[in-house]
């Protein structure tokens, strides 16, 4: 059974994995292939902790020789599966637990980055689920079909029709080829309803951009 976290269970200091374009959302599942030595060390240390949490966060574009600045909001995921390959990589899955704000970076001797995390304002992430009372599945799937056609994407429509609204919206938010800034906007949407409104706006914009003849990938 998946462990249920309470606010008091969330750590003050959190190891973070800065990864552009990678979106983790509460109660969603994110697979990762870990191979860099610093992140292998991070995972080894994380597995020794009681919480087994890693903060997924997007970095800002680097403007110098130093490490890139981290965005102000990320999401912590718990390591819920792990396998090790013969060549020393870790194939893991994180299950999203709670978003956090970065209060500051922790100086130290670890090869990976750590932050002081503020969890206030995201307590709803710890609930078993979120709901979107205004969700119109037929209208949403119609828009999604037009977006997939414009983006030349394919999907398992039977699974999409049967998925519950939170899994559907969050999975699409994580998997669709949106730009980094757009992924961050989806992360920062306060509730599921606002995330659905945001992803609908992004899909409408992508469809309109392709219809007007703009070149480049649909984002």
TrEMBL record:
PROSITE patterns: LON_N. Residues 14-207 form the Lon N-terminal domain. Pfam families: LON_substr_bdg. This is Lon N-terminal domain-containing protein. It comes from Rubrimonas cliftonensis.
């Amino acid at each position: 059974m998946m462990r249920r976290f309470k606010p008091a269970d969330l750590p003050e200091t959190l190891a973070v994995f800065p990864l552009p374009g990678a979106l983790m959302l509460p109660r969603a599942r994110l697979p990762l292939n870990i191979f860099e030595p610093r992140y292998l060390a991070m995972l080894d240390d994380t597995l020794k902790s009681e919480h087994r949490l890693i903060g997924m966060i997007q970095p800002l574009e680097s403007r110098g020789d130093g490490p890139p600045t981290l965005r102000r909001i990320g999401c912590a995921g718990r390591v819920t599966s792990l396998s090790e390959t013969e060549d020393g990589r870790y194939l893991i899955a994180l299950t999203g637990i709670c978003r956090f704000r970065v209060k500051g970076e922790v100086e130290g001797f670890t090869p990976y980055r750590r932050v002081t995390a503020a969890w206030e304002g995201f307590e709803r992430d710890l609930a078993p689920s979120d709901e979107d009372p205004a969700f119109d599945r037929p209208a949403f799937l119609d828009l999604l079909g037009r977006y997939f056609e414009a983006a030349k994407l394919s999907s398992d429509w039977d699974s999409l029709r049967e998925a519950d609204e939170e899994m559907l919206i969050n999975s699409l938010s994580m998997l669709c080829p949106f730009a980094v800034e757009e992924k961050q906007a989806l992360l920062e949407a306060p509730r599921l309803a606002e995330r659905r409104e945001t992803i609908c706006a992004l899909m409408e914009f992508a469809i309109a951009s392709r219809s007007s003849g703009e070149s480049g990938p649909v984002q």
